[in-house]
Amino acid sequence: MKGKESKAQILWKLFKATFMLSAFTFGGGFVIVSLMKKKFVEELKWLEEEEMLDISAIAQSSPGPIPINASVILGYRMAGIVGSLVAILGTAIPPMIVISVIAYFYEEFRNNPVINIALQVMRAGVAAVIFDVVLNLAKNVCKTKRILYIGLMVCGFIATAVFDISAMIVILCCLIIGIIDLIIDTKTKGRE
């Protein structure tokens, strides 16, 4: 589908999609990444699901906001450096506008009971979307049928949920184990 469209059309679709996702998504990176998957894998069919999962993993393990990190990779994949810049703009503009408005009207927002209730209701929706992301990611890890990956997922969950170990430490440990697994796998395939 990407080959039939001009670069300008791809850039416009990329900007519009990232802008809309960013403008109407509350709850941070985990929420927007699942919606990006729905948009770019299922609707636009620009990416395969496995590729989107790779983008999600890189975005989450890189420093900085997850949506911006995912947009950089996604934009580059679709249209090179210009695509990255367009996707970053589409993702960054809505929160900048919202934060500017909130900062300007901070006192009114802080004391408004209607806004407080609306924010609490949005938290429930965000929790549901994050739960959906977790289930989809777990399902994809289980599809690999690799005991190592499934074990890392279970151990990572236990480490963060039960023992309150920092997610950053869990991510770094999984990264190191993944690199070691890749090296071993490469050496094993090289001998065959």
Protein described:
- With 192 residues, the chain is mainly α.
- The protein has a domain at 2-120.
- It has helices at 7-23, 29-43, 49-61, 66-104, 106-110, 113-143, 147-161, 167-191.
- The longest helix is centred in the middle third of the chain and has 39 residues, at 66-104.
- It is globular, with a radius of gyration of 19 Å.
- The mean pLDDT is 84.
- Alpha-beta classification: mainly alpha
Gyration radius, in Å = 19 Å
Low-confidence stretches: none
Biggest sheet: strands, sense, closure?
Answer: none
Oligomer: single chain
Tally of DSSP β-strands? 0
Give the overall silhouette. Answer: globular
First-to-last CA distance:
37 Å
Order of helices and strands: HHHHHHHH
Number of continuous helical runs = 8
- Helical residue percent? over 70%
The percentage of residues in β strands lies in under 5%
What does the average pLDDT come to? 84
Keywords:
single chain; 192 residues; mainly alpha; 8 helices; 83% helix
Give me a quick take on this structure.
This protein has eight helices and no strands. The chain has 192 residues and is mostly helical.
SSE topology sketch:
Elements lengths: L6 H17 L5 H15 L5 H13 L4 H39 L1 H5 L2 H31 L3 H15 L5 H25 L1
